[in-house]
Specification:
- The protein is mainly β.
- It is built from 1 helix and 8 strands; from the N terminus they run E-E-E-E-E-E-E-H-E.
- The strands form 2 sheets. A 5-stranded antiparallel sheet has the order 6-4-3-7-8.
- A hairpin with a 7-residue loop joins strand 3 and strand 4 (57-66).
- The longest helix has 11 residues, at 128-138.
- It is globular.
Length: 157
């Protein structure tokens, strides 16, 4: 068995429904995982777009997700002990895929890290760049899911 992550029963590499994007309801999709590595004490989740013009763009950052949790429901709003980082939009919340208008489809990676510590001592609101070293120093496994989202040019007749 291997550590796996699923997003709303979507196929890996498939199109992310507009409901979960900036052009829809901008709510987080349901996420679930199974078969985490032995020794897992907690989880961290980073959702990011590596194709953003400015480099990796964080859309959602969560850590200190308890070991007992194996899913996050749609439109999840974390409560302690789960901490929320500051995304690329400057908010401590989920920010759905929103590639520039007219750009080809971007890849959106949901990366779940299994951690050997039950708590990362990072302040709420930490950015991707601030939290990633702490996550990587405690990661004992990871699972990911990739979905696509594009925003074609609109034409007016």
């Amino acid at each position: 068995m291997s550590f796996t992550l699923s997003v709303n029963s979507l196929e890996e590499g498939g199109k992310i429904p507009s409901r979960y994007t900036c052009e829809g309801d901008n709510v987080s999709p349901p996420v679930s995982w199974k078969d985490c590595p032995a020794g897992t004490q907690a989880f961290a989740l980073i959702v990011e777009d590596p194709d953003a013009p400015t480099g990796p763009w964080a859309h959602w950052i969560l850590w200190n997700i308890p070991r007992s949790v194996s899913e996050l429901p749609q439109d999840f709003h974390p409560t302690p002990p789960i901490e929320v980082g500051r995304n690329g939009f400057g908010r401590q919340a989920y920010g759905g895929p929103c590639p520039p208008q007219g750009s080809p489809a971007h890849r959106y990676f949901f990366r779940l890290y299994a951690l050997d510590a039950d708590r990362l001592a990072m302040p709420s609101g930490a950015t991707r760049e601030q939290i990633l070293p702490a996550i990587e120093s405690h990661a004992i496994g990871s699972a990911h899911f990739m979905g696509l989202c594009g925003r074609p040019e609109t034409t007016h007749a």
